Amino acid sequence: MKRLIALFLTIALFTSCSVDEGTSYHSELLPVESVNIPDEFEMGKTYPIEVFYYQPTSCYSFYNFYYKKHNNERTVAPSNLVIDSNNCESTEDILVGNTFNFVVTGNGSYVFKFWQGKDDDGEDQYLVIEVPVVETP
């Protein structure tokens, strides 16, 4: 259902930005600065995870999260739509936060890899946080 809603919103967004208006844009992943995540999870509960990052200019707008699952590992990065314009104002000093809800469905622990950009060699860098799932009392 969430994917259907996301697909509908994407189609609506792209059709509302007509090429006739001369507006063009692209999507871009932005490096994570920090996160607000619990120290532990309980099975079956839902937790908000807040991700903080800097948007370089006023032409950036949060779209959604890149979110990839692999076993107990989650890779996360904020995805922004960027309007291709020369009239953008610098916003590099403004820390932006967006939240996603995480539902705990497995035992053990979860490893979150929050993308922090690339190093000088072009290798992806991550803020890695492991969160254990504890027994419910």
From TrEMBL:
Residues 1-21 form the signal peptide. Keywords: Signal. It comes from the Bacteria. This is GOLD domain-containing protein.
